[in-house]
């Protein structure tokens, strides 16, 4: 009977994985039926691995930090052939999101009511303003960092399989972007709270803590040594007024509405001041009466957004901040903040509901039409990628060819084996 229950549970999780996979793909079916590399997917990862081999590039940082998941995914994808590489990489990117959803619904986060986790998952699957990163490997490290943060917030692993899961995710996520630097303080808060003070936190240090510390040091070293490599020298163009407008428009408004639907909001400075003030006051008021989990859940997106705005890659020769008020520009910088903002709203709803599900139901009813409005994501432009791959397949060994990829204007150069 016990074995039968385990088998049924496993089948249930597999079915949930398949359902979420299909939902993610349904928002932009071309990621499965007409897959194309996006930006660095082709120009950096696929080109480098195909031309020079996987092992010659796996140890190299890119844009100032290590991006292991991108190189690892295309290292796997290339095994299936150049024509299938983009599809396999996209499937890996989708799977990362699916595993994150399964983790949210698992017992590891049982301290959060299941109805709130379901609403969070539905939002995650339908949230707007994802065109830039939907779905590709080059932006997968944003989602891996969110996944790792969920592991830090969760109850500690108490089985071998969960420990393997946590360590695997920790290593891949931490070495796939600089975000472990912002997750490490959250883990420190957790350990201090769990172990009863700083001294006890140090005494009780374990393998997970040490592994995160090592990964953090590796990424910090990469940032310090090569922080300007491949990054735009353009000025930020930063002002406090612009910061307020970006937060009001892209974080608060963009969490619910497609950015092109609320374009005027970027210029409504008075409204954005009110929204920013309300957001900051809400976070601070809840801060004093909340535990380490809330503090960590606030600290992480704040640090993430701070880093993103301190070193954005928007333009090569123009100020970086002003274009963030243009719909569709720099969407990757707000994936985590928008999801975190919605989770903050769920936290507030839970605080005021006093055990009733009515406020949560109202929130779901009100937000669903807005989510559905931006559900369908336009496909990538047809730049001739598939035809170029067919032409490339017919080349003689040693010949090279420029292959068009998205976004329009990008190419990668492959040398036929």
- Mean pLDDT, to the nearest integer, reads 91
Helical segment tally? 17
Helical content class: 55-70%
- Rg (C-alpha, Å): 22 Å
- Which runs of at least 5 residues are low in confidence (pLDDT < 50)? none
How many angstroms separate the termini? Answer: 54 Å
Question: Could you tell me the strand content as a percent range?
Answer: under 5%
Encode the helix/strand succession as letters. HHHHHHHHHHHHHHHHHEE
Largest sheet: 2 strands, antiparallel
* Strand order in the sheet with the most strands: 1-2
Structural class: mainly alpha
Q: Please count the beta strands (DSSP E, at least 2 residues each).
A: 2
Large-scale geometry: globular
In words, what does this structure look like?
- The protein is an all-alpha fold and 417 residues long.
- 60% of the residues lie in helices and 3% in strands.
- Strands 1-2 form a two-stranded antiparallel ribbon.
- Helix 6 runs antiparallel to helix 15.
- The longest helix is centred in the N-terminal third of the chain and has 26 residues, at 2-27.
Blueprint (SSEs and pairs):
Blueprint: H1 2-27, H2 30-33, H3 40-52, H4 68-77, H5 85-104, H6 114-126, H7 140-153, H8 160-174, H9 180-195, H10 198-203, H11 207-226, H12 240-252, H13 269-287, H14 292-310, H15 335-353, H16 358-373, H17 385-393, E1 400-405, E2 410-415
Antiparallel strand pairs: 1-2
Main attributes?
single chain; 417 residues; mainly alpha; two-stranded antiparallel sheet; 17 helices; 60% helix
């Amino acid at each position: 009977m016990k074995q039968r229950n385990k088998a049924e549970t496993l089948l249930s999780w597999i079915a949930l994985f398949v359902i979420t996979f299909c939902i993610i793909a349904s928002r932009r079916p071309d990621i499965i039926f007409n897959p194309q590399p996006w930006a660095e997917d082709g120009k950096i990862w696929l080109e480098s691995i195909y031309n020079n081999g996987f092992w010659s590039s796996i140890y190299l940082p890119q844009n100032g930090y290590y991006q292991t998941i991108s190189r690892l995914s295309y290292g796997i994808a290339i095994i299936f052939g150049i024509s299938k590489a983009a599809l396999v990489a996209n499937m890996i990117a989708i799977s990362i999101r699916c595993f994150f959803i399964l983790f949210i619904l698992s017992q590891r986060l049982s301290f959060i009511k299941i109805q709130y986790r379901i609403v969070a998952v539905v939002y995650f699957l339908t949230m707007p303003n994802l065109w830039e990163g939907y779905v590709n490997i080059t932006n997968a490290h944003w989602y891996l960092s969110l996944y790792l943060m969920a592991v830090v917030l969760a109850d500690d692993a108490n089985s071998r399989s969960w420990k393997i899961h946590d360590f695997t995710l920790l290593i891949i996520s931490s070495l796939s972007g600089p975000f472990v630097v912002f997750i490490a303080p959250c883990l420190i808060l957790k350990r201090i709270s769990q172990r009863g003070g700083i001294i006890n936190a140090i005494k009780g240090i374990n393998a997970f803590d040490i592994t995160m510390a090592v990964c953090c040091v590796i990424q910090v070293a990469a940032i310090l040594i090569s922080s300007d490599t491949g990054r735009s020298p353009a000025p930020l163009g930063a002002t406090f007024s612009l910061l307020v407008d970006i937060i009001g428009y892209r974080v608060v408004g963009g969490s619910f509405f497609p950015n092109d639907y609320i374009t005027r909001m970027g210029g409504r400075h008075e409204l954005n001041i009110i929204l920013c003030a309300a957001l900051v006051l809400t976070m601070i008021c809840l801060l004093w009466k909340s535990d380490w989990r809330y503090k960590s859940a606030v600290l992480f997106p704040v640090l993430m957004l701070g880093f993103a705005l301190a070193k954005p890659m928007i333009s090569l020769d123009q100020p970086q901040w002003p274009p963030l008020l243009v719909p569709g520009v720099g969407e990757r910088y707000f994936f985590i903040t928008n999801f975190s903002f919605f989770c903050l709203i769920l936290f507030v709803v839970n605080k005021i509901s006093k055990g009733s599900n009515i406020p949560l139901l109202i929130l779901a009813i009100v937000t669903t039409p807005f989510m559905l409005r931006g559900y369908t994501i336009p496909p990538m432009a047809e730049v001739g990628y598939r035809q170029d791959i067919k032409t490339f397949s017919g080349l003689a060994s040693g010949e090279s060819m420029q292959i068009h990829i998205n976004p329009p204007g990008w190419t990668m150069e492959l040398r036929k084996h």
